[in-house]
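Dear Dr. H.,

I hope your travels went smoothly. While you were away I took the liberty of generating a structure for the chain from your last submission, since the lab meeting agenda had it listed for discussion. I wanted you to have the full record in hand beforehand rather than looking at slides cold. The sequence, exactly as received, is reproduced here:
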Amino acid sequence: MEINLSGKTALVTGGNIGIGAAISRNLAQYGAQVALTYYSHKESAKETCQAIVSAGGKAAIYKLDATDSQQVNDVVKQVADDFGGHIDILVNNAGHLVGRVPIDEMDDAHWHYVINVNLSSAFYCTRAVLPYMNNGGGRIVNMSSLAGRNGGGQGTAPYAASKAGVIGLTRGLAKELAPRGITVNALAPGFIVDTPFHETFTGKEKYESIIQNIPLKRAGVPDDVAGAVLYFVSDLGAWVTGQVAEVNGGAWFV
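The corresponding predicted structure, in token form, is as follows:
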């Protein structure tokens, strides 16, 4: 089966760096016109956009704080206006570990911020996009994490909770939106290098220890995640909804 996303508009939040940039480039490679958002690292957003355009694709960048529901509504409307009135693919990739804080030292603001960045943002973006996806056949992919499966590391309880919440949101939306012909799936990446998260794992010894616990004996790269997204949003995944792809080299089995 040939993968062809021509005529599709894809909105990728946090589509400027790391995994998000790989997803944006990959969707464009298969014909989608891509709207990618960034919160910071504007230059990276420009570079990703330019790489798509230079390869013959169509892309545009948008500044977005995905924790601000009104800003999400405004940006989504602008994307729809700029790309022919429809959004066919939504990849809720925006998110961040934020920081490692022991639970007995954590204040309310940190907890709520992590939940908002990783979970509420996916809710806001999905709600905003649905009016432009009601022609049937829409695809939504949410970004969870291995931490949402195994609880994550020390000091990351809110991150693990937020990413587990993404899985619950995915399954609830999959049931609710199936009658409209919209599929909703999630990815739970493991140890992925060349991303901002990779910076939290410092030192050769720590790196090698992580690799030894991965059956495939290598770290993942952003393109590994982008390939799984492509499956979910193409005709290959047309009859798949409410599922979580464990993109972790075998580090976690369900």
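Two observations you may find useful: The mean pLDDT is 95. The chain is about 40% helix and 10% strand.

With kind regards,
E. W.
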